[in-house]
Amino acid sequence: MGSVHRATNQEGPSPRGRGARGGTLVEAAFSFPLLVALVLGIFDFGSALSDSIAVRTGAASSARVVAVGPWPAKACTLSAPDAGLTVEDMSILCMLKDRSDLSPARVRGRIVLAAGGYVEGQPIAVCSMTQLTSLTRLYARLIDDKAITTRSVVRIDAVKADGSLTTGGEGAFPGQDWAFCAAP
């Protein structure tokens, strides 16, 4: 039987010895900040996506409740409410804030009736917005002070017997407006 010999390099370090380790360190030094920026971007933009889903869900859910009525009386603190809001208007806006699953201070709402008013068969729009804030501050220039807006329009199937709705809502966030929330 033959013997097995292992080839060994006994002449010192290979040509890729120290230089290869130094090159790996330089590659890591360039790659690590990019990896951190990617991970922090996932946090920031994931949070923005979550806020978007929450606002859309709150508006759609509130609009469905308004369409089929009756809705429960709710109380909350509204931000810069329009004059002349009825108790029913305020209840819907508070329901919108509650169903959005965000801090109530981060959600603003508005109700817009069609020209026919609060009448069975008429459309109604329930609109909401939230202002974004960067969690990590790395992407603050891209995210901060931007608003996510949504408008949910439904047809009124049943009118609440003792209710009256008006067009109105809360003031928009600074730098934003309700232009997207036109009458249906």
Please describe the biggest sheet, giving its number of strands, its sense, and whether it closes into a barrel. 4 strands, antiparallel
First-to-last CA distance: 92 Å
Q: Based on CA inertia axes, which overall geometry fits?
A: elongated
Low-confidence stretches: none
Rg for CA atoms: 29 Å
Number of strands: 4
Structural class by sheet pairing and helices: alpha+beta
Helix fraction, binned, reads 25-40%
SSE order in H/E notation? HHEEHEE
Number of alpha- plus pi-helical segments: 3
Task: Note the beta-strand portion.
Answer: 5-15%
Mean pLDDT: 90
**How are the strands of the biggest sheet laid out side by side?**
3-2-1-4
Q: What count of structural domains? A: 1
Question: What would you note in describing this structure?
Answer:
With 184 residues, the protein is of the alpha+beta class. Helices cover 38% and strands 15% of the residues. The chain has one domain (31-169). The chain contains three helices and four strands; from the N terminus they run H-H-E-E-H-E-E. It is elongated. The model has no long low-confidence stretch (mean pLDDT 90).
